[in-house]
Amino acid sequence: MTKSELIAHLSGANPHLRLPDVELIVATIFAEITTALARGDRVELRGFGAFSTKTRDPRTGRNPRTGESVAVTAKSVPYFKPGKELRERINKPAAPRAPVRAPSAA
Fold first, then answer.
1. CB contact set of 29 (below 8 Å; sequence gap of 6+)
2. Per-domain residue ranges for the chain?
3. Would you identify the CATH topology of the domain 3-86?
């Protein structure tokens, strides 16, 4: 699902909200999550998961074109850990389907 699809879905599910208001709500939520991660904070959405940052140590990499060694500096990368409820919903077994029978020749 893309951001525009999310906005369209939320707008359809909440007809009392104007589309520009839904766009502002979604943009504000994403901006707040991004700002918190940039500060080094952890963002937890109960039942969904937690966003945090992990630090990658400096290392020596290789330029794939030339094969030359390149120093890669340390950096922080975003990390998402799904919550228990989200994992359970995703891994829930599908309901059994009724067998498909061939039409009888009569």
1. none
2. 3-86
3. HU Protein; Chain A (4.10.520)
